[in-house]
Write a structure and sequence with these properties.
- The complex is a heterodimer of chains A (108) and B (121).
- Chain A is mostly beta strands and 108 residues long.
- The model of chain B has no long low-confidence stretch (mean pLDDT 96).
- Classes of the chains: A mainly beta (108), B mainly beta (121).
């Protein structure tokens, strides 16, 4: 199974700042089939990025994804108050589908 | 409107079996695979498995092999997830999730609201 490790565990930033979240795979992710989700308390996760860099419908362009192989990054260029949440990466290139343990983005 | 409507919360004793449902509306039921993902309180996301309602083929995560059964009822456009031999660590919110793709292993842009399963003596 492809183990995904996200860092940092918690990221404390202020609105307007840039956030960089990392997702590292234990082995190469097939086809760069890597997705990012945002989850707010009491809600289901919401898709942000698929295929490592393709924004989902309706996602603002301040969210961007990059990477390939084993190293992937989610960047939020200028944080808005509604961006403070937990973020997960997921690989779907091979079975079993796996998720990272999450990065909590909190207001500094 | 595309929707996944899940059944209500369940409370079960250790050793029992739970079966929860996910009713599909707004698209052709057999077009896309349905997945189940769970989240223990304060924890991350864990994939349990999928079913392709077109041919009833299933793929399960190794961690749940032998304990989980996912089925699909094409007469009611409903997918079921049954988990047996419950233990306290199975206490979690269980989500059904899918996307509009014929590829089985995929990301998820459509989620149910989740079903809380509590395992307690």
């Amino acid at each position: 199974e492809v183990v995904l490790t996200q860092s940092p565990g918690t990221l404390s930033l202020s609105p307007g700042e840039r956030a960089t979240l990392s997702c590292r795979a234990g082995q190469s992710v097939t086809g760069s089939y890597l997705a990012w989700y945002q989850q707010k308390p009491g809600q289901a996760p919401s898709l942000l990025i698929s295929g490592a860099s393709r924004r989902a419908t309706g996602i603002p362009d301040r969210f961007s994804g990059s990477g390939s192989g084993t190293d992937f990054t989610l960047t939020i260029s200028r944080l808005e108050p509604e961006d403070f949440a937990v973020y997960y990466c997921q690989q779907y290139g091979s079975s079993p589908i796996t998720f990272g343990q999450g990065t909590r983005l909190e207001i500094k | 409107e595309v929707q996944l409507v899940q059944s209500g919360a369940e409370v079960k004793k250790p050793g029992a079996t739970v079966k929860i449902s996910c009713k599909v509306s707004g698209y052709t039921f057999t077009d896309y695979s349905m997945h189940w993902v769970r989240q223990a309180p304060g924890k991350g996301l864990e994939w349990l498995g999928l079913i392709d309602p077109e041919d009833d083929e299933t793929i399960y995560a190794d961690n749940f092999q032998g304990r989980v059964t996912i089925t699909a009822d094409t007469s009611t456009d409903t997918v079921y997830m049954e988990l047996n031999t419950l233990r306290s660590e199975d206490t979690a919110v269980y989500y059904c999730a899918t996307t509009d793709s014929y590829i089985r292993l995929r990301y998820f842009d459509l989620w149910g609201r989740g079903t809380l399963v509590t395992v307690s003596s």
